[in-house]
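=== Structure Prediction Worksheet ===
Name of assembly: unnamed complex
Input type: mixed (protein and possibly other molecules)
Chain count: two
Listed entries:
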Amino acid sequence: MSAKSVLAPSHSEDSTAIHASHVEVGFRDKAVWHDATFDVRRGEFTAVIGPNGAGKTTLFRLLLGLQRPSFGDIEVFGAPPRRGNRRIGYVPQRHTIDNETHVAADALVRLGAVGSRWGPGLSFRAQREAAAEALDAVGASELGSKSLGSLSGGELQRVFLAEAIVGNPEMLLLDEPLSNLDIRRSRELVEVVHHLVQSRHVTTLLVAHDINPLIECLDKVIYIANGNVATGPPEEVLTSRSLSELYGVPVEVLHDSRGNIVIVGGENPHEERAR
Amino acid sequence: MSFSWNIVTDLRDMWQYPFMRQAFEAGTIIAVVAGIIGYLVILRRSAFATHALGHVGFSGAAGAVLFGVNPVYGLLLFTMGGGTGMALLGRRAATRDIEIGTVLAFMLGLGLVFLSLYNGYATEAYSILFGDIEGVSAAAVLLTLEAGLVVLAVLALIYRPLLFSSLDEDVAEAKGLPMLALNLGFMLLLAVAISFAVQVVGVLLIFALMVTPAATAVQLTKRPLYALVVSVSVALFSIWTGLFIAWYEQYPPSFFIVTISFALYVVVRGGLALSHRLVRRGVSAPGRDATPGPESV
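=== Predicted Assembly ===
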């Protein structure tokens, strides 16, 4: 932190959304990943990529103040992360919602804005308008009156997104929103998110397995694998050399004729390392 | 006095008797509380936990009878203890049916021992198991009112965070809501509601009052506020009509209350299933190949 203030405190206060320096996180004495140093600037669209169990969600838990780093410093908008930060909108990873949930989607979106307030709430009209506006911003106006249990995976993700943006947060953390969607629905959702990033200048981190649906709109990639974290523009991080270094084994990054990326050789790095 | 179609005269007749007035009063308070709590029970998937807390309360009530204490205090002690235990084990604990069922059976057995040690065995057991709303005293009505007001006041205070944490636990937690305290608060409110609802339908039939009205309501509306109104209305209708009929028929009011609550549920579910089928048939009407439109995303 001291190094940062020497460098350019005012500049970083203005344009830095996340500042991480030599961060290590772990459960008990086992480090999930270590020595992560990176900045995310305001308004950037960043993908968090890596194999299962690499610690992508752990990064979100740090930013949300649900977990503390075991070493190093991390700052969100120039302050240590804290739980209940209203400047962050969060969509956790969810597999399903019970199809017996007979609750209208816009009731959930409304709770995104007022759900953490105590006492009886009576300002219905303002809430309803805010929810309608949020649903509209994700192209889901027609879903507001449908029950949550009846929505498809792609529809649910839009509703969750609306729930996250209804309080006009400055940062969005989206955990695996594409995981249950087919390619077409993935691309549609990415377009919605990209539109939000551009129209609202909201700093967005999106955890994904596959970089391909995202690659065209990304500003930055945080690649977590094998206990290491690499950060930078996609064209710098997603190279054979940088990923080989990250995984600690030879990895090859291939491009197909349409610009899709295939990463070969990095599977199960934890197991290989353990042997 | 026999039944006339003038309901007002009928009610005036039965309300001449204090025990009937008290039954309607206690029933009304409990219907409001049970209808509201029941909706949250459904959203939190704690229906079986609710059923089980009633059984846990049974041994408390039986123990209180044995020691010559008002059974409602035994109920409160045991249901609140059970509720606290479930809350401390985490939100998921209330959805674990095997563990809950194991404790439930044991508590019912414990209650049986307490009752067999007590001399007035049969009548006391009967009223705890199946309710005795016509036996509610004026003092009990007052206590019910006080408890009901406390439950509603606390509920008004924590309603939105509770609803939020019921629907979207992870986001509510990230927003800084105290999940353990909310869960504990809810289980305690549930425990109080159950302890007083036992006066109406008893521990064995508690489901019909704490869950069935809300289950009917969620079939009819997706709006949480409307669902609360419908749930309370169904509970009120079941209790009032049950008491009314029991005045003329020589069967226990619990039977009528439970039957009406059940009948409303069946009619609503059946009616909705039928209307869905009719709508579907209407869509694939003659002349068309019943090609479904493109699935919305």
